[in-house]
Write a structure and sequence with these properties.
Blueprint lengths: L9 E5 L4 H12 L3 E5 L13 H9 L4 E4 L6 H15 L4 E4 L14 H31 L12 E5 L3 H4 L5 H21 L5 E8 L3 H4 L6 H10 L5 H11 L10 E5 L2 E4 L18 H11 L10 H4 L7
Parallel strand pairs: 1-2, 1-4, 2-3, 4-5, 5-6, 6-7
Antiparallel strand pairs: 7-8
Helix pairs in contact: 1-9, 3-4, 4-6
Length: 315
């Protein structure tokens, strides 16, 4: 997309200094949105903060931009960033929760410290920012911000992962946080629909710092990594821009995946089969027979996301 369909909008992009977040910032900026690049510049595990990462990314954008270099993994900094954004640009319309860290460890080895750090950065930070932003979005709806018509610029994107939908070895903290982003997306979509604010979940397949550090445990995972390294994050940015556009005003509460020029719509957990016994409680034997006859063939395979998407991407 090259037109200025987002002229007048203001977007906050966490993790906007590198990778998928930076590509999204560049795309939205090219379409006319003012951008807040929120990134503390830390390494993939969250250590060694570097303010220059966000500052450099913001300075390189074609339109108005501001760097926010504090970690957004606290309620106070999220609120401060929203207040800074509205003071600088007059409002805030688009939220992209992309910030994430990675501290892998098997469930029987992972540390409590690593669990807390990943949940705080990858999930709680998204909630803090949504909580700080949604009152502004609701007020902007009441005030008809923008063209004078009913306000319909509000967009929230949670950048998730197929790890949160399928699971992956050694990523209990990361996958749990990304799964939590799905639940947070659904609640936000439900609660903000009356204010014409959409909320969706995007699972990106793209070259990033996360794919760089994948250590394949088998040949299939090695093939997955090699393919992922060829996929540009620009495709994720392009789809994010679509979700921010007027054409996607009624698209909300959905789970998408973007892999190169492929876009996936994921189903969401809903009952697919029911067993009932009205006249008495189930015995173990009766349940075993009913489960085998009605459920077993529909069980979800115990496969990782790396195995499920180990096919050639369209790049």
């Amino acid at each position: 997309m090259t037109d200025k369909t987002l002229e007048g909008r203001v977007a906050i992009i966490t993790g906007g200094g590198r990778g998928v977040g930076r590509s999204i910032a560049e795309n939205l900026s090219a379409q006319g949105a003012a951008i807040i690049v929120a990134d503390n510049g830390g390494d993939v595990d969250g250590s060694n903060e570097d303010a220059a990462i966000a500052e450099t990314a913001a300075a390189a954008l074609p339109g108005p931009a501001l760097a926010y270099t504090k970690s957004v993994a606290s309620p106070e900094t999220a609120q401060e960033m929203v207040e800074t954004t509205t003071a600088e640009f007059g409002g805030v319309d688009i939220i992209v929760n992309c910030a994430a860290i990675l501290r892998d460890g098997l469930v029987f080895k992972g540390s409590t410290e690593d669990w807390d750090a990943v949940i705080e950065t990858n999930l709680s930070a998204a909630f803090y920012l949504i909580r700080a932003t949604t009152p502004v979005l609701r007020q902007q709806f009441k005030d008809n911000r923008g063209s004078g018509e009913a306000y319909d610029w509000g967009r929230i994107m949670n950048i998730g992962s197929t790890a949160g939908l399928y699971g992956n070895f050694g990523q209990a903290n990361y996958a749990s946080a990304k799964a939590g982003l799905f639940g947070l997306m659904r609640i936000t979509a439900l609660e903000m629909v009356r204010s014409n604010v959409t909320c969706n979940y995007i699972a990106p397949f793209a070259h990033s710092r996360v794919t760089d550090i994948i250590e394949p445990a088998n040949d299939e995972q090695a093939e997955y990594k090699a393919r992922a390294m060829r996929v540009s994050p620009d495709h994720v940015a392009n789809f994010t821009s679509y979700l921010c556009s007027p054409e996607a005003l009624d698209v909300t509460g959905q789970v998408f995946g973007v892999r190169g020029r492929e876009v996936f719509l994921f189903n969401q957990p809903r009952p697919i089969e029911t067993i009932t016994q009205a006249d008495k409680d189930w015995s173990n034997e009766e349940l075993a027979k009913a489960v085998d006859n009605n459920f077993r063939e529909q069980f979800t395979p115990l496969e990782t996301d790396l195995e499920a998407f180990n096919t050639e991407p369209i790049v």
